[in-house]
Amino acid sequence: MIATAYPPQYYYPNGFVAHQAAAVYGVPCSTSTLFNVHAPVFIPQQASSIRTPIYQERLHANVKVASRPPSKPKQPKYAPRPAGEFLDLDAQTRRNGGTMTKDFYNELTEYVHDHKWKMAPEDFEEMLMGYFNTRNKHLDADSMDLHGLVPFLARNVLEQRKKEVKKGLRPQYLYACTGRGNRSKTGKSVIRETVIDFAEENGYKWCYMPENEGVVVIKFSSGRHHKMTDK
Q: What is the model's pTM?
């Protein structure tokens, strides 16, 4: 006879539940006692020790231990950074074991842009993405430095980030560092406009980081939302 097994929380310290004592040893047991792990169970003296050969034999023959399916790990919850916090990318890089500073990264990407006419298009894109990946590898999970990229590459990495957020691999908030376009010929940041367009096309809330319009904050969420208040 195989006794019906119950989850481990219904087991008693002596190794089996009340109804199994009743089934194996003929000890009477009420339903209220069965589901009350703190209720006393009366077991014959010969079965009070797990060292008893009879107990061991009957336990292995009559008890089927219940197994629980592995529980899924809970996804970490992320919150936006406190209002007024200064986003120091170089400090993040040092804290996370990286060495590429903002100034060095900008020098590298500027060099690539200056020599673009000497390169094949695929080499140009590969070099920019190589420096981008090295720079962003050691930033915090909610930060991204988009300086130096061209619009279509910026959109590609934002699409990739969207997939990572959906899988729970990245925070719901993204601090996209685009710059204000102070050094551009038009005085506007083309990358910043690309980020804003991406957010509005996908219905994501966005705003400028308080006191720093060179950082666009995006909240990856469902629903048709547009600009968040940055107060």
A: 0.63
Q: Work out the number of other CB atoms within 10 angstroms of the CB of residue 23.
A: 19
Measured between alpha carbons, how far is residue 226 from residues 42, 167, 196, 201, 214 in Å?
Answer: 67, 23, 9, 9, 18
Contacts of 159 (CB under 8 A, 6+ apart): 198
- Return the H-helix or E-strand segment holding 207: strand 205-209
Q: pLDDT tens across 158-191, in order?
A: 999 999 999 999 999 999 999 988 777 777 899 9
pLDDT of the residue at 231: 39
Strand partners, 144: 176
Burial (CB < 10 A; 0-12, 13-18, 19+), residue 172, is middle
DSSP state of 182: T
- What is the rounded distance in angstroms from the CA atom of residue 65 to the CA atom of residue 123? 61
